[in-house]
Amino acid sequence: MPKRRRPIVAGATVLEGPKVRWDNPDLSMAALKAWVGERITITIAQETQARSQRAHNYLFGVVYTEAIRAFQDRGDDNLSIVRLHEIMKLAHNWEDVVNPMTGEIVRVAKSTKELPVEEFCVFVDHVMFDLATYLGIVFSPPRTHEEYRA
After folding, report:
1. What is the pLDDT of residues 2-49, one digit of tens each?
2. 96 forms bridges with which residues in the sheet?
3. Among 46, 102, 114, 115, which is disulfide-ready with 120 (CB 3.0 to 4.6 Å)?
4. Residues with Cβ within 8 Å of residue 51, at least 6 apart in sequence
5. Domain layout of the chain by residue ranges
6. Bridge partner residues of 12 (DSSP)
7. Cα separation, 127 vs 121, whole angstroms
């Protein structure tokens, strides 16, 4: 029985020809040495990029921080950045699930961590619109290192 191994995930770019340019060819080829003599399956799929760290930093460090400050100026000291994020996820990134014990359909917030870049940008835009409308504030635009749409 073959030894159980974890799959290898190797990034690459398809060039004209078609040819493949591996992101790190030495590492990819070295990893394949452990599979010598075994049958493998190679899957080619388009890469989807999840939200960037700078997008996360802009949302939490600028948008939510400025919103919390505005909420506090209004006298609401019970709201934290984490709680505000949960509220925004329920408003803009949710799914309906069936409670297996009651059969009731319940709305639950989904994680934003694995959202593709485009979907996370839409999420940030919706959050900014909601908070700007409700609080009457304008958010600081992202600085170069915070640009979340790039």
Report:
1. 567 777 777 888 889 888 888 888 887 877 888 888 888 888 887 777
2. 107
3. 115
4. 112, 113, 114, 115, 116, 117, 120, 148
5. 1-47, 53-146
6. 22
7. 10
